[in-house]
Design goal:
binds magnesium ion, elongated, 6-stranded antiparallel sheet, Calcium-transporting ATPase, cytoplasmic domain N, binds adenosine-5'-diphosphate, 7-stranded mixed sheet, alpha+beta
């Protein structure tokens, strides 16, 4: 409904004409030059009316019907029946309303824009015992940077000083600063809230978390105008009702001015303005809490979700799996197993792969560069390491790479702790070892699920690529409605689709293997935005930080935004209808009608901005 926007900055001009005309008309009237007054008002209405007609014609040619048709009708008819003052007031209000919308949207969008405008441009790099200021684009992995007080961390890295105090509020909404000690990971985008510290870059800026967030925010802002479908649904009904009341008033009284008064009151700015404002405010508030929602449609759907499908590794579990045991086949030692597996897994972004690399580094092992890598997302990866063909991954993936004699291995024989993730390693077709990792549930998962059920989520289903016994052990006691294990990426899609029966489905996942399911879900939510991974791009919403519990505020904010948007629509329509009836019975003149309509607009827009504040 919002009038299709032209990019030309003609709006200030469009307000200028009726505003100047209105004043000039009153001055002329005061000085006794009565004969020009009506003409001045009529002429100053025309630019707005013409601009509006152009937009309407453009919209209609695209098959879009807008309520701005009512605005055009009311100006035209007011001019035709000689109500120039009413016409110019409507013109001013209409042009002003659009301005108000820009203002309100800008205000509502500020949290999202804030994320973008903070992007650091330069960094201080240590070089030959000196510091040099360089463009952030030039930072390479391994560079040692000095992060000064108040500065924003430009790249992901590891802390090289003993302590850092970071303010991550712009990313997470969490106002309490967090502390990091030497060797811990520091995420780009956080502000240094303590003393200056040294950071060793883990990856270039373009692949860091913050750049990923910026790219996602930009894409979200480019996505089409915020949800207007809600108002669309009412547009035609409202249009018909307006014309019927106006027509009836005229037929009854034969007084064209009454008809004009009805049309003027109906000029439906609240519908045009309030819904987008409420939605953008919701998106913005979510961004403040570290949840990037990519558009009004996702926000609206999120408010209505009935089923939740969650991934296990990295989503329900915290993805910081730690190695608890390494079993080497005969002729090898533990370090051989982890060295080969980790060398190969340097090429994978899977959370387990990263855990293996971290363990090898902890042991001080020298990793080599793998070649000819082929990864099957969620199953494993194979390639050449130390001139031998290696494969690392889940049991069924690795078994398929083994010589027939070795395929007999039975995963259940192992006395692994329940719920442990087991990664197998094959080298040159022989089983080389297995690595056992403890990957625990995130803290507070049970409470989180209870809260979600309180928000009306009827079904909670686990969809994992891991083995059934692992999935069952990890989720025991959580009261999930179903646990689906051993899934390929396509089978995760099927799980999402089969949950559709209950209502809109939200899927939360982190891995490349979750991307198809995230895209298939009504609302796909990706964990983390590091380098805008495939999952973050396929998703409708991204949790900018690695904390699953953010889906609760996300749903709450979405619901509140939707509720307030609906409230605005109903209140706007209700008040306008009362006004139209009053006008039809002759209780409102066209000018009074225009003023009343403006009061309704302002009230409804202020109401919509309430979304920015908590409940
Ligand atoms: P989930 O669907 O629960 O997130 P995944 O399907 O991503 O789990 O992973 C399932 C299992 O596949 C892991 O527990 C691990 O054993 C194995 N796996 C997948 N990719 C890799 C990899 N790159 N390196 C090591 N193991 C892997
Ligand atoms: Mg996962």
């Amino acid at each position: 409904m919002s009038a299709p926007r032209s990019d030309v900055p003609i709006r200030p001009l469009l307000i200028g004409f009726p505003a100047a005309g209105l004043v000039l008309g009153f001055v002329l009237r005061a000085t006794g030059d009565e004969q020009w007054v009506e003409l001045v008002w009529a002429i100053s209405t025309l630019p707005v009316l013409i601009a509006l007609l152009v937009e309407i014609i453009r919209g209609v040619s695209r098959g879009e019907f807008g309520l701005d048709i009512v605005a055009a009708l009311s100006m035209t008819s007011a001019l035709l029946v000689g109500q120039q003052l009413a016409a110019v007031v409507v013109a001013l209000m209409y042009a002003g309303g659009q301005y108000l919308e820009d203002f309100a949207e800008g205000h509502a969008r500020r949290e999202m824009t804030a994320l973008l405008s903070r992007a650091p441009r330069t960094a201080m790099r240590h070089r030959d015992h000196q510091l040099e200021e360089i463009d952030v684009e030039l930072v390479a992995a391994g560079d040692r940077l000095l992060i000064r007080q108040g500065e924003i961390v430009p790249v992901d890295g590891t802390l090289a000083s003993s302590l850092a105090v970071l303010d991550q509020s712009a990313l997470t909404g969490e106002s309490l600063p967090v502390q990091r000690v030497a060797g811990e990971a520091v995420m780009s985008g956080a502000t240094n809230a303590g003393e200056a510290f040294d950071l060793v870059a883990a990856r270039p800026a373009a692949q860091s978390t913050y750049a990923g967030i910026v790219r996602l925010v930009e894409a979200a802002q480019r996505s089409k105008a915020p949800m207007v479908r809600l108002a669309d649904r009412y547009a035609v009904v409202f249009l018909v009702a307006t014309l019927a009341i106006a027509g009836a008033a005229w037929a009854w009284t034969r007084d064209p001015i009454r008809m004009v008064a009805v049309l003027v009151v109906a000029t439906p700015c609240p519908l045009i303005l309030a819904v987008p404002v409420a939605i953008v405010a919701g998106l913005s508030r979510a961004a403040h809490h570290g949840i990037l929602i990519k558009g009004g449609k996702a926000l609206e759907t999120m408010a209505r979700i009935r089923s939740l499908v969650v991934d296990k590794t990295g989503t329900l579990t915290d993805g910081k799996a730690s190695v608890v045991a390494i079993h080497a086949a005969e002729g090898l030692v533990e370090d051989d197993v982890i060295r080969i597996a980790a060398s190969l897994d340097q090429a994978s972004k899977h959370v387990i792969a990263q855990a293996l690399v971290a363990e090898a580094q902890r042991r001080g092992l020298a990793l080599t560069v793998p070649t000819e890598m082929i990864e099957t997302p969620g199953e494993g990866i194979s390639g050449i390491v130390e001139e031998r063909r290696a494969a690392v991954g889940g049991i069924s993936y690795v078994r398929a790479q083994l010589a027939p004699a070795d395929r007999e291995l039975d995963p259940t024989q192992a006395l692994d702790p329940p719920g442990a993730v087991v990664v197998w390693l094959a080298v040159d077709g022989r089983l080389a070892g297995r690595i056992v990792l403890a990957d625990e549930l995130r803290v507070g998962i049970a409470a989180l699920l209870t809260k979600l059920r309180g928000l009306g989520v009827e079904r909670i289903v686990l969809a994992t690529g891991d083995r059934r016994d692992v999935a069952d052990a990890v989720t025991a006691g959580l009261g999930l409605d179903a646990v689906r294990a051993d899934l390929t990426p396509d089978q995760k899609v099927l799980v999402v689709l089969s949950e559709r029966k209950a209502g809109p489905v939200m899927m939360v996942g982190d891995g490349v293997n979750d991307a198809p399911a995230l895209a298939a879900a009504d609302v796909g939510v990706a964990m983390g935005a590091k380098g805008a991974a495939a999952s973050a791009e396929a998703a409708d919403a991204v949790l900018l930080v690695d904390t699953l519990d953010r889906i609760v505020p996300a749903i709450e904010i979405a619901r509140r935004a939707r509720l307030i948007a609906l409230e605005s629509v109903y209140a706007g329509i209700g008040l306008s209808t009362l006004g139209m009836i009053a006008a039809a019975f002759g209780y409102l003149t066209p000018v009074e009608g225009a003023l009343m309509q403006e009061a309704i607009d302002v009230a409804v827009i202020l109401n919509a901005l309430r979304v920015l504040r908590g409940s």
